[in-house]
Structure formats: C-alpha cells, structure tokens
Amino acid sequence: MAIKIMICDDEIDILDVTQMILEDAGFEVIAVSDSLNAEQIFLNEMPDLLLIDLWMPGISGDRIISSLKSNVAHTNIPMIVLSASDTGKQTAMSCGAEDFIPKPYDIDNLLDILNSHLIEKSNSKY
Length: 126
Prior knowledge:
single chain, alpha/beta, Rossmann fold, five-stranded parallel β-sheet, 5 helices, about 20% strand, globular, CheY-like_superfamily, phosphoprotein, Response regulatory domain-containing protein, Sig_transdc_resp-reg_receiver, Bact_response_regulator
C-alpha cells in the first residue's frame, strides 16, 4: 500500500507540480486547493503526512495545523509547511509543524525531508 500524502496549496501550478513529483516518487497524493475544506478532507483521508502552504485564502495553514495537532490522534502525523513566507519557518514551528520547506523548493530536498519524516514516523510506531 502506497504512503498517502496530502498537499494543500492554493497556487494550482505549485499544487500540480508537487503532486506530479510525489506521484512519480511512488506516493499516493491527495491534492487540495481549498483551505476551507482541507481539515475535513484530512479527517476523511487520514494521510500519512500533510504538506501545507501557510498563506491561503480562507483558513491559513498554521491554523489548520494547530487545529489538527490539538487532537491527540493526529500528533504522530508529520505536518510540514511549504511556504514562500519570510517568517514561514518561525510560524511553522510555533503552530506545531514538524518542518518547513521554503518555496521555491529543490525537488531532492523536498523528497529527502518528506522521507526522513516518514521514516521517523514509521520507527515511532514500534
């Protein structure tokens, strides 16, 4: 069974390219462009990892992460911020995200970071 990653970004081009990269790497991808529905989609899909932009119309990524992380059932799911924000790393860490990837991102760096968190998550199950 493929590892499921949910991507949430209102920039459709970034969403499409990131989805293609992750699918080519063998992941199952749930791509979401509407932050207003992101939390419900997350709860329905229960991905292995969430990759989310910070600044989106509707609900910001940090609010979504904070809300999801407030439920103990989601604390072991890595949530990583992908953002072009100058304060993105600080915001990501303050809302409970496990990591921050700046836009524009390097593909190899993106995959390395995601894989390291998925390995860590896998090891923590035992």
